[in-house]
């Protein structure tokens, strides 16, 4: 026999018992239970703290106006300190002979800009020859560091061989020694090789730097070992793993090494001064010293020479800056 007793009233009663009863303000008991101290979980005063004063919520990742102002002020100060001297040198190099650069209140913008000072530099010294010498030395150092630092970093990070940790420790130890401590031994070595007064002798000690080897070691170490193991199982040798697996993952670090090597070779002054004697073999940084007169010095010409030496570095960094920042942040294999 079918039970015709309706369960609807019972279900309705159950639902009625389970549903919260609204109060006069429209809030529910369940709402009051979940937010006991008011609508924002602090107290009965909407959006206020215990004293009744307004308080803004701290949002993660969002800077306040005060923080933005402080950051921009600090950035402007750093910009003035770093870029200001170069802009001042550029301004001085463009000032003509009629402008007084020794006045107590010199003008930052030249009143009659001219490139006469750059022409004077080219007439006083063989500046193009010196630029070519510096570019040759820098190219040798960049090529040497990219090739040898990459091979050494790969061997230290991805290959297993005896005394690997000892060699790594020796590279770290060389960073402690200043360059002046080994400059005499370097000169004796270069002289014994017959490379004194030669641009190759200038470039030879800088063809591989311990810091660049450690940068490549750290970059290769970020690559998961499982990738190398899979390549070994597929029959790849060490050079194939370097070419097809490791090198594509460390292109940013290679760009960083190229920039550092170029700047170091281009700006070096002490080592070329010791090695080179012939005026035609001088690099640009050494050759610019001829602009310093014995009894008189034209600061406009010196400023022009400084800008000539600075422009190639600025161009190189502008071209490779995206690779530079990629190398700074590089780590692991990008998917």
Entry summary:
With 335 residues, this protein is mostly helical. The chain has helices at 8-18, 29-34, 65-93, 116-124, 127-158, 164-174, 183-192, 199-203, 210-221, 225-233, 238-246, 251-267, 270-275, 284-287, 299-328.
SSE layout and pairing:
Blueprint: H1 8-18, H2 29-34, H3 65-93, H4 116-124, H5 127-158, H6 164-174, H7 183-192, H8 199-203, H9 210-221, H10 225-233, H11 238-246, H12 251-267, H13 270-275, H14 284-287, H15 299-328
**What separation lies between the terminal Cα atoms?**
69 Å
The portion of residues assigned to helices is 55-70%
**Count of alpha/pi helices:** 15
**Roughly how many Å is the radius of gyration?**
34 Å
The main β sheet shows up as: none
Mean pLDDT value: 79
Helices and strands: which structural class? mainly alpha
Report the β-strand fraction as a percent range: under 5%
Low-confidence stretches at least 5 residues in length (pLDDT < 50)? 1-47, 331-335
Q: Which sequence of SSEs, written as H and E, runs from N to C?
A: HHHHHHHHHHHHHHH
Shape: globular
The number of distinct β-strands equals: 0
């Amino acid at each position: 026999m079918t039970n015709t007793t309706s369960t609807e009233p019972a279900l309705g009663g159950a639902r009625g018992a389970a549903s919260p009863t609204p109060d006069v303000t429209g809030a529910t008991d369940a709402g009051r239970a979940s937010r006991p101290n008011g609508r924002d979980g602090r107290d009965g005063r909407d959006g206020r703290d215990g004293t009744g004063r307004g308080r803004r919520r701290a949002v993660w990742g969002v800077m306040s106006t005060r923080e933005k102002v402080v950051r921009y002020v600090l950035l402007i100060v750093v910009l003035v300190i770093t870029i200001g001297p170069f802009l001042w040198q550029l301004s001085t190099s463009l000032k003509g002979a009629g402008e007084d650069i020794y006045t107590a209140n010199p003008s930052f913008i030249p009143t009659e800009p001219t490139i006469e000072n750059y022409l004077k530099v080219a007439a006083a010294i063989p500046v193009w020859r010196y630029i070519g010498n510096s570019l040759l030395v820098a190219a040798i150092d960049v090529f040497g560091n990219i090739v040898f630092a990459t091979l050494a970093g790969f061997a230290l990070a991805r290959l297993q061989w005896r005394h690997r940790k000892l060699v790594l420790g020796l590279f770290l130890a060389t960073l402690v020694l200043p360059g002046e401590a080994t400059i005499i031994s370097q000169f004796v070595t270069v002289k014994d090789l017959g490379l004194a007064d030669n641009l190759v002798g200038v470039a030879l000690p800088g063809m591989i730097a311990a810091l660049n080897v450690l940068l490549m070691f750290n970059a290769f170490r970020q690559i998961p070992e499982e990738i190398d193991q899979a390549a070994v199982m597929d029959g790849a040798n060490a050079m194939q793993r370097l070419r097809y697996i490791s090198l594509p993952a460390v292109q940013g670090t290679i760009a960083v090494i190229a920039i550092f090597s170029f700047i170091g070779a281009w700006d070096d002054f002490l080592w070329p001064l010791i090695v080179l004697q012939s005026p035609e073999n001088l690099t640009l940084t050494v050759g610019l010293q001829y602009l310093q007169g014995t009894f008189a010095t034209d600061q406009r010409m010196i400023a022009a020479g400084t800008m000539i030496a600075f422009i190639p570095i600025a161009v190189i960094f502008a071209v490779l800056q995206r690779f530079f920042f990629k190398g700074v942040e590089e780590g692991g294999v990008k998917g």
